[in-house]
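Appendix B, Record 12. Input sequence as logged:
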Amino acid sequence: QNGVSFVPSLGTQVYSVTGTTSEGCTATDQLSVTSNPNPIISAGPDQLICSGEDVILSATGGSTLIWTNGVVDGVVFQPTSTATYTVTGTSSAGCTGTDQVTVTVNPLPIVSAGNNVTVCDGAGVTLSASGASTYTWDNGAQNGVTFTPPVGATTYTVTGTNAAGCTGTDQLIVTVNAIPEVTFSPDTTRGCTPLFVTFTNTSTNSSECVWTLSDGTVLLGCGTVSNWFGAPGCYDVTLTITDNNGCENSYTADDIVCVDALPVASFEPSSNVVDTYETEIVFTNTSYGATTYEWMFGDPTGQNTSTEENPTHTYPSEGGEYDVLLTAYSENGCIDTAWSKIIVKEDLVFYVPNTFTPDGDNYNELFLPVFTSGFDPQEYSFYIFNRWGEIVFESHDATVGWDGSYGNNGEVQLVQDGTYTWLIRYRTLETLGFRKVTGHVNIIR
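Logged structural output:
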């Protein structure tokens, strides 16, 4: 109908029109209408991408293709969020068609590898990431699985994948500090009980040190420490150090200190007290734990020493006291000593006659007690008494006797024949005590 819109069929159609005038006159004309089909435009399938990935949208079905949102057909772009894109395609006949595609942008997982790790050599490390569904570590590490990393600083990278297949990464540094080397030395390793030993720590970079000795002693200190070992035997010593990085290590030296037992020195003399007539002493050695011996008999004269096991020594035949020292040596040179005192007793020997004849014939003229040994001549007194108890003679010199006279100042007289009492007071060398002896003497002319 004239002036009414319609959709012609595809193809070329010829349309005739007849026009009639008011007078009834008619005329006809024709025109051809060609109807071209719209192009079938394909935007392609919807796409799923991860944030940060590139996208290329390429449509088909038109001579020219125009996309919304500033997209250029076939040109890479990077969408930041999920969006639907429309493409309009125009055929060579000028006909158009459209299509749409949705690009879904999935966010990347925010993966956390965790904090940096510092450990000592030999310690196990477990790396556990978060923020994704699955994780892949480099350098041979596995998520959640304990492993032993090498000494030094190593960077470990983890790639986390979420349910959408998008990935994120993170890193951490595992620092492995070397274990400190433990060394020490004693100033001596063997000796006699009690043995004093000083240990010196020769380790480097040690901040805390604990010494554990097998005798139960625990010592602290990173320089030198000392210990008395009292009981015989061999002892282990363990040093445990912690360095400035907090790493710990120990070293045990087995049987590093050996303590030898002392011998026990003892002996028995055949007698501790002898007289001047028999001064030979036999020494019986009762020591044990010893192999060699050294004797000192305390006698400044003659052979004063011996290395025999059971020696015999003869002391001077005069009074005296002698200190005997036995030194016993073990196989390892340990020493013990024993003492004893030997007394050579000088017997008191004296003689007092009972009669003398002071008659001038030069025979038996003097009454003189004879002391040969066993007394102190500095502490000697000799008295003669008459029948009335009067002192008629007095001497303090053991070499001065009584000639039968009495008096002084030029009035010396001879006593009458008869019996007189004598008294001697002296100090003995054996006991250093004083004694008195009395008796009678007869004067005969």
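DSSP finds no helices and 37 strands in the chain.
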